[in-house]
Structures are given as structure tokens and as C-alpha cells.
């Protein structure tokens, strides 16, 4: 399948004063750090009409990369790449994995205990100071929570330990505690890795096609993006939207995922589309993101969320919803922030 990649090229200012042959020779010989080439971006719509599919320039029949170095297609085999990685990188240890989980859980518990018992009105009368300190609490807990999320992620990839049962048990517990449907995510995430960047099968990041860019709406959207993508207001808007609702929209409505569900091999995608109420989500066992054999795992993921949701409701009812927001949900947003970076 074809993929569309964002393309940017650079031309070194000094190249404007050199001949083509001299520039080519010098730029190939020098390192990228020594000779960055800067030129107008090739992501403009005019460049999309040029027919060039590579971030390369042809000079005297040679392909040059963005630094002016001659480009050759890599011919490494998967075995060669794997053999180049030290053997110890493939060794999995359940004991070490569990030690990391214990470390992060202990860090979360210790941080909560410290702030809950120290940052009080009796110890710190100033409300603004307490607010700042509790703000720092949410940040720190977000860091530890991200560590726990990543460990569960490794469980999903079966790199946590040699035991699939241990991996899935730890992953389910840790991800459920962070309101992540473990098995639902694990299955769709695995499909994402098998089809990364594929226009019709990627579960997360689907590149836009040339036709989408070339449409009238696509043209103006692209030009507006080019003008605003690095402005503070656009960056802030994108970041806030992503951190607050991006992950939830992905789980609930499959935003950013492919929309070719009619092709689902078991016919589960008939009439289903991404979006609210479209029947494509990470919670429904009949979702076209999954096969029939996955149904029990989707339900188990839902059970984990129900258990954690029940715990959170009980905490809110007994200790106050504001406390719950500070203790759990603000750190939860920090976790989403770091995962989206």
C-alpha cells in the first residue's frame, strides 16, 4: 500500500555561490552536521503537483538526501539488523519487570502519602502555596503514572517477561488502573504496528492522500496549517485538544484510525464508520476492529474499566470529587500528555 510522507528539503546558503558539480562533490563528502542544506519547504501544494515522491534531488543521475549526501536504498535484511543488536537486549526477566512495577507503585503511594499528610491547611496556611504544591503533586504523579503505563505497554508487546500469562495479568491490572482497556488496546495496537503508515489498515496514524490535499478544502486546510503550525496559539490549541480528549476520542470513536471497515474479513464492518455512534470503538466486542475470537478479551477489558470506575466513584463519594480530581484525574491528564509527546 502506498503511504504519503511529509517532505521537507534544505539548501545550504553557501551552495548558491558554488557550481552544481562542486556543490555536489563537497556536500556528499561533508557530514550532515557540517553542511546542513536549507531550502524552501517542499510541503507546499505546488510541490505536490511536481510528481516527486521522494525527499530527494536528482543531480547528475544521483539521488541526494536533504543534506546533499548521496542516497542509496538500504539493503539490510531483518536478520542482519537483529544480529547487530546485542543479545542481552532480547532477554526478558519477569522478576526485573515486577520490580519495576513495584518501584512505580511504591513511588505513587509514597508521593500521595507525603502530600496528603504534609500539604495541609494546618502545616501550610497559605492557600496559594498549597495550590502550587498540589499542582506539583499532579505533575510528579503523572510521571510515575506514565512509567506504569509504559510497563503495561511492554506487557502488551510480550516484552515484559517470557510468560504470556504474567504479561497479560500485569498489563490488565496496570492499564485498568489507568482507565485503559488493556486487551482492546493491545489487539488494535498490534495491528497498528503491522501496518504503520498504511492508508487502509493502520489503526492509529493514517496519512492523507494526494487527492485529499488537492481538494479545495484540503488546499486551504494545508495552506492554513503551513501558516499556523508553529505559532504559539496553534501549538497550544493542538496540545490542549490532544491532551484533554485525543486519547478518549481514539478509544470511543476511532479517530485517526482507518475507515475501511467494510473490508473486515468476518463482515463485522458492514455499515460501520468511525465517529460517535458509528459502531467502531474499543469497548464493543462486535466492533470491526476485532475478530470474533477477541470478544472475551474485549469484555475482560471492559470489566477492568468497570472495576476501576467503581473504585473512583466510591473515592469521590467518600472523600469529595475535588479531591478525586486532584488525586487522580489531573495526574491522569499528565499521563496522557507524556504519552502524546
* Total number of strands: 2
Mean pLDDT: 82
Principal-axes geometry comes out as: globular
Into which percentage range does the β-strand content fall? under 5%
How does the helix and strand content classify structurally?
A: mainly alpha
Number of helices: 12
Distance between the termini: 27 Å
Largest sheet: 2 strands, antiparallel
Sheet with most strands: strand arrangement: 1-2
Give the SSE order as H and E letters. HHEEHHHHHHHHHH
Helix fraction, binned, reads: 55-70%
As an assembly, this protein is single chain
What is the radius of gyration? 25 Å
Question: Could you list the spans in which at least 5 consecutive residues all have pLDDT below 50?
Answer: 1-54
Report on the structure:
- The protein is an all-alpha fold and 341 residues long.
- Helices cover 55% and strands 2% of the residues.
- It contains twelve helices and two strands, in the order ααββαααααααααα.
- It has a two-stranded antiparallel ribbon with strand order 1-2.
- β1 and β2 form a beta hairpin.
- It is globular and about 75 Å long.
- The N terminus is likely disordered.
